[in-house]
């Protein structure tokens, strides 16, 4: 229309949400600070974060540690203890096209343990106690005509389970793997993902837990030359969920997208952390997490770390978190951290916005004839659909849209 | 032919200092095909009248009635009023997160008509209406009012007016913040909607400027929550020359008597 339409925000691809406070920057070669963080504390570089397979290296956190400061650790003692799975507490079933290789990997059996090195107490005790790991391997050049479904169902409130899933996408393969978490348990689940050269892999982790479930997870991926990896976390259920989605590269020309959608109701703590390690030149990453909150004590956390290492020239990265607060009494924490060690990059940007759907939005829509319940659904569906439509598995998209509608129906009451 | 009738309307709001009466007995009758201009200084209650007609929850009606063809508008919820044919072009349209213009327009049209518009003709109608109001096609994919300038928001209000085809349009200071070109574009939109012959218009404005483009049949002067003078379009010309000062000084019997005389 006019020059007015071309705002700075539009240029950096971070359209704001109405009435939202927003911070966003676009750091390019000419404008680089080495360590750029919006946390309230001065932090060590993400590169210095300890990773280890040895349980003794990680003390049980007390909640004051930088990486645990938002998490209700006192409610997680069961999950943070060095304890085995209880009998029969987790059902794991796999549905996969015939081409997919499924096998159980023992401790230390390749490719297990190559990609995922635990980065916190939860992951290390999970790794040590998971027993056999479920391998899902898509052969070289295979193009799956249907998604692989790994269904993990918890069988008891407060009962401990550990699991380890290894996903391998062979060179130039194409596929989608869906991890569906449901039922109820205290579940510690590690997932490691190897995306071989030229492969295109989407991993969707769906958390549709029942109300009292607790779930801690570390999902680590390594993406080889010219490969494309997409990780989508969808968290709707569970009392406490904390999912760390990490990615690094093993060759140039690789791309990673870390996406997430969460909807927290009263009393739910839903925490997502992402870490993109640009350790290789000329790779691309995009991080987008979107959340909705409603009800007293609903708490969401997003911490997005991006590290562009000195050698990672030509990096193009962007990360963004948006939260939509639907009622009073909610809390959304959002912390983008960007560390840049080289100026020779294509781009590195971040944005975070948290705002609310309020009576004025509602009045505007209703003044156009739209009934109240439809208006609320319209807003939240529109907001979250940006993530759901990235899944590209129609049956799952439909299920998740319905699940979001059910969350919304709870608001109407 | 429809009639929107406002009788002895008293409206209050809650403030930190307690309840405050804003409208102190307003009566107006608007019929299909008529354009009524409501003019008055800031704080006289013009926008309160607009918001009350649309049903904004901030305003409490303490006395009086609003009826649309005899139906009690005050008993209707906000969305019911819109579906009954009342449209408010807002002074400060809000940005609605997460909802694209396309999705919003279709959802609203469906709600107002009680059935989904035919996709092919609807898409064309939207496109044509946008073109006439010089709204870029890519606005259809943007979220409602998100990042729009003040002038763009006003054009989008008139876009909705043209697409939803209400029985009565209330334009709340649609002219404020518009440059001359935008004012012309917006006025042409209102005149197109009016020319279809099924709409009555209540045009609320502080300035006479917009009345060069939209010709009122009646002018009502608002001061301190009451209509203090009424007349034809010539009253607007007088206001242009004399301003509102003379009402502010002696707002009361004399000017109301003058209004009565003018009507007689």
What does this protein structure show overall?
The complex is a heterodimer of chains A (413) and B (264). Chain A has an 18-stranded mixed β-sheet that branches. The relative contact order of chain A is 0.13. Chain A is globular. Chain A is mainly β and 413 residues long. Residues 1-34 of chain A have low confidence and may be disordered. Helices cover 15% and strands 43% of the residues of chain A. Chain B is α/β, with parallel strands linked by helices and 264 residues long. Chain B is built from nine helices and ten strands. Chain B has helices at 46-54, 78-84, 101-113, 119-132, 150-164, 180-195, 233-242, 245-250, 253-263; strands spanning 3-15, 18-31, 35-39, 60-68, 71-72, 86-89, 168-172, 200-205, 218-223, 226-231. In chain B, strands 6-7-8-3-9-10 form a six-stranded mixed β-sheet, with helices on both faces. In chain B, strand 9 (218-223) and strand 10 (226-231) form a beta hairpin. In chain B, helix 4 (119-132) crosses helix 5 and helix 5 (150-164) packs parallel to helix 6 (180-195). Chain B starts with a strand and ends with a helix. The model of chain B has no long low-confidence stretch (mean pLDDT 92). The interface between A and B is large, with 38 and 42 residues.
List keywords for this structure.
heterodimer; A: 413 residues; mainly beta; 18-stranded mixed β-sheet; 18 strands; disordered N terminus; B: 264 residues; alpha/beta; 6-stranded mixed β-sheet; 4-stranded antiparallel β-sheet
Distance between the termini of chain A: 42 Å
Low-confidence stretches of chain A: 1-34
Tell me the number of helical segments of chain A per DSSP (H or I, 4 or more residues long).
6
Oligomer: heterodimer
Task: Kindly name the structural category of chain A.
Answer: mainly beta
Overall average residue pLDDT of chain A: 89
Query: What amount of the residues of chain A lies in strands?
Result: 35-45%
Unreliable residue stretches of chain B? none
Total number of strands of chain A: 18
The secondary structure category of chain B is: alpha/beta
State the helical fraction of chain A. 10-25%
């Amino acid at each position: 229309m006019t020059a007015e339409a071309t705002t700075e925000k539009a240029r950096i691809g971070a359209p704001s949400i109405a009435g939202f406070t927003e911070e966003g920057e676009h750091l390019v070669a000419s404008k680089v600070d080495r360590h750029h963080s919006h946390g309230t504390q001065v932090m060590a570089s993400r590169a210095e974060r300890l990773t280890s397979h040895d349980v003794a290296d990680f003390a049980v956190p007390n909640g004051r540690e930088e990486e645990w400061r938002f998490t209700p650790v006192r409610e997680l003692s069961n999950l943070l203890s060095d304890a085995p799975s209880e009998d029969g507490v987790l059902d794991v079933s796999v549905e996969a096209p015939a081409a997919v290789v499924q096998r159980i990997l023992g401790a230390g059996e390749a490719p297990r343990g190559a990609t995922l090195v635990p980065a916190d107490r939860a992951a290390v005790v999970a790794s040590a106690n998971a027993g056999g790991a479920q391998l899902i391997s898509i052969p070289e050049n295979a193009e799956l005509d249907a998604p692989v479904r790994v269904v993990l169902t918890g069988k008891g409130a407060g009962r401990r389970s550990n699991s380890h899933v290894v996903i391998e996408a062979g060179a130039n393969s194409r596929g989608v793997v869906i991890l569906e978490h449901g039922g109820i348990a205290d579940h510690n689940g590690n997932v490691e993902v190897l995306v071989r050269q030229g492969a295109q892999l989407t991993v969707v982790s769906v958390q549709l837990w029942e109300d009292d479930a607790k779930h801690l997870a570390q999902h680590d991926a390594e993406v080889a030359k010219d490969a494309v990896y997409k990780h989508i976390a969808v968290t709707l259920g569970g009392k406490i969920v904390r999912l760390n989605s990490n990615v690094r590269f093993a060759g140039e020309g690789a791309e990673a997208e870390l996406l997430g959608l969460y909807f927290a109701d009263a009393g739910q703590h839903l925490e997502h952390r992402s870490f993109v390690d640009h350790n290789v030149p000329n790779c691309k990453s995009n991080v987008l997490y979107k959340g909705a909150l409603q009800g007293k004590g609903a708490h969401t956390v997003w911490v997005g770390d991006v590290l562009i290492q000195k050698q990672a020239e030509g990096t193009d990265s962007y990360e963004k978190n948006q939260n939509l607060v639907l009622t009073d009494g909610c809390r959304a924490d959002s912390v983008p951290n960007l560390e840049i060690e080289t100026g020779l990059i294509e781009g590195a940007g971040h944005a975070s916005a948290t705002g609310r759907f309020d009576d004025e939005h509602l009045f505007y829509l209703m003044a156009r004839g739209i009934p109240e319940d439809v208006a609320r659904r319209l807003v939240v569906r529109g907001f979250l659909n940006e993530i759901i439509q990235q899944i590209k598995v129609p049956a799952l998209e439909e299920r998740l849209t319905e699940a979001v509608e059910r969350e919304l129906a709870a608001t109407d009451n | 032919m429809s009639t929107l009738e406002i009788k002895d309307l008293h409206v209050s709001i809650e403030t930190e200092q307690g309840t405050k009466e804003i409208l102190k007995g307003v009566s107006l009758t608007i019929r299909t095909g008529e354009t009524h201009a409501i003019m008055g200084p800031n704080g006289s209650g013009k926008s309160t009248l607009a918001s009350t007609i649309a049903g904004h929850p901030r305003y409490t009606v303490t006395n009086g009635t609003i009826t649309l063809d005899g139906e009690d508008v005050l008993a209707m919820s906000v969305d019911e009023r819109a579906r009954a044919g009342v449209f408010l072009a807002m002074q400060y349209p809000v940005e609605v997160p997460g909802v694209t213009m396309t999705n919003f327009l279709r959802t609203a049209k469906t709600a107002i008509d009680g059935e989904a518009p035919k996709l092919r003709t609807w898409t064309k109608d939207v496109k044509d209406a946008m073109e006439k109001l010089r709204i870029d096609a890519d606005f259809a994919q943007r979220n409602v009012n998100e990042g729009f300038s003040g002038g763009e928001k006003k054009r989008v209000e008139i876009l909705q007016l043209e697409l939803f085809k209400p029985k009565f349009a209330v334009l709340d200071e649609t002219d404020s913040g518009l440059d001359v070109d935008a004012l012309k574009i917006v006025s042409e939109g209102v005149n197109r909607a009016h020319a279809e012959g099924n709409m009555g218009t209540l045009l609320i404005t502080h300035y006479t400027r917009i009345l060069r483009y939209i010709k009122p049949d009646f002018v009502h002067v608002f001061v301190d929550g009451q209509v203090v003078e009424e007349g034809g379009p010539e009253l607007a010309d007088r206001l242009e020359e004399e301003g509102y000062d003379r009402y502010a000084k002696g707002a009361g019997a004399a000017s109301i008597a003058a209004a009565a005389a003018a009507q007689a």
